[in-house]
């Protein structure tokens, strides 16, 4: 704090030296003239040298004051510019934001929104890391992580952005060979492609009109990438849960069809994850933008 106080006193001295008047410096700085005089007098006592020659009408630099002014004026200017830049970063959405998110979430849900964001905030640049792993926000200098489902971490700041619904899909060829399930319990007789391990059964919780039914299914494929799951479903290898956006193109092309259309999975929450509530205007702008758009899906 002493260093901050010294820099503040230096800025007061520079303004008095530039204006040549305590009263004019007082008006410009918004600091009482008596305070300016007292602080500069304290500087002179601290350094043991007179910085200003005072008279009833004028204030002039002493030889020591002139040398001090020549060395510190640019420091005060640089500090002011640095403060203005910091204020702009905090209060105006400009700058760089590094974002981490899962691959298919980025490709399917976040990516299509980014052109509108870029047009709305041309001063913000984004560095996007698409990866299934949960990045360490501190050590990897990630400003914002976007994650699906529950987020665990006591020191993390989490904001819900929206939710993604998932439905069951299969290829017409698969259904022609194996029949179409009529109720969730029928899924135990079908090949299912899951996001868990193929070595363990997966529990699918389906909902309809406020009622839920859990079905234990097994698969020869356990995949942590929704894009690959969709590809295998399109090839007729089984039934799987996909978001409507991820399946839309294949449905429109009649490569996939809805299975058990009255049933759906519980919506999967999408969260923004940060290490602090104190974020730049750029991060806040991105989070607010995504929350507004994803909440409409």
Helix and strand arrangement:
Blueprint: H1 2-19, H2 22-29, H3 33-47, E1 52-54, E2 59-61, H4 63-91, E3 95-101, H5 103-110, H6 114-120, E4 124-130, E5 144-148, E6 157-164, E7 166-170, H7 172-178, E8 192-193, E9 202-208, E10 211-217, H8 226-234, E11 239-243, H9 244-252, E12 257-259, E13 264-265, E14 268-274, H10 281-294
Parallel strand pairs: 3-4, 3-5, 8-11
Antiparallel strand pairs: 1-2, 5-14, 6-14, 7-11, 7-12, 9-10, 9-13
Helix pairs in contact: 1-2, 1-3, 1-4, 2-3
Q: Could you walk me through the main structural features you see in this protein, from its secondary elements to its overall organization?
A:
The protein has 297 residues and is α+β, with helices and mostly antiparallel strands. The protein folds into three domains: 2-91, Arc Repressor Mutant, subunit A, CATH 1.10.10.10; 95-165 and 268-294, D-Maltodextrin-Binding Protein, domain 2 (3-Layer(aba) Sandwich); 166-265, D-Maltodextrin-Binding Protein, domain 2 (3-Layer(aba) Sandwich), CATH 3.40.190. Helices cover 42% and strands 24% of the residues. The protein has helices spanning 2-19, 22-29, 33-47, 63-91, 103-110, 114-120, 172-178, 226-234, 244-252, 281-294; strands at residues 52-54, 59-61, 95-101, 124-130, 144-148, 157-164, 166-170, 192-193, 202-208, 211-217, 239-243, 257-259, 264-265, 268-274. A five-stranded mixed sheet has the order 4-3-5-14-6. The chain has a four-stranded mixed sheet with strand order 8-11-7-12. A three-stranded antiparallel sheet has the order 10-9-13, with no helix packed on it. Helix 1 crosses helix 2 (22-29). The longest helix has 29 residues, at 63-91. The protein is rod-shaped. The model has no long low-confidence stretch (mean pLDDT 87).
């Amino acid at each position: 704090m002493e260093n901050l106080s010294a820099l503040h006193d230096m800025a007061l001295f520079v303004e008095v030296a530039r204006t040549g008047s305590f009263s004019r410096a007082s008006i410009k700085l918004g600091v009482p003239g008596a305070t300016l005089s007292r602080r500069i007098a304290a500087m002179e006592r601290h350094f043991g040298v007179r910085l200003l020659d005072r008279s009833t009408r004028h204030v002039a630099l002493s030889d020591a004051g002139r040398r001090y002014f020549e060395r510190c004026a640019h420091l005060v200017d640089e500090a002011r510019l640095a403060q203005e830049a910091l204020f702009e970063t905090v209060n105006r959405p400009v700058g760089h934001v590094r974002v981490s998110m899962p691959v298919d979430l980025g490709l399917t849900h976040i990516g299509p929104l980014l052109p509108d964001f870029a047009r709305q905030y041309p001063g913000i640049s984004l560095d996007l890391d698409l990866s299934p792993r949960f990045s360490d926000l501190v050590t990897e200098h990630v400003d914002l992580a976007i994650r699906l489902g529950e987020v665990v971490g006591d020191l993390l700041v989490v904001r819900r952005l929206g939710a993604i619904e998932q439905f069951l899909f299969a290829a017409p060829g698969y259904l022609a060979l194996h029949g179409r399930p009529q109720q969730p319990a029928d899924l135990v007789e079908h090949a299912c492609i899951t996001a868990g391990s193929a070595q363990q059964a997966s529990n699918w919780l389906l909902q309809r009109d406020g009622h839920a039914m859990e079905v234990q299914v097994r698969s020869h494929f356990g995949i942590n990438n929704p894009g690959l799951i969709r590809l295998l479903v399109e090839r007729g290898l089984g039934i799987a849960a996909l978001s409507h956006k991820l399946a839309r193109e294949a449905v429109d092309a009649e490569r996939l069809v809805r299975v058990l259309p009255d049933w759906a999975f519980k919506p999967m929450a999408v969260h923004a994850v940060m290490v602090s509530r104190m974020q730049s205007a750029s991060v806040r702008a991105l989070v607010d933008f995504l929350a507004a758009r994803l909440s409409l899906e």
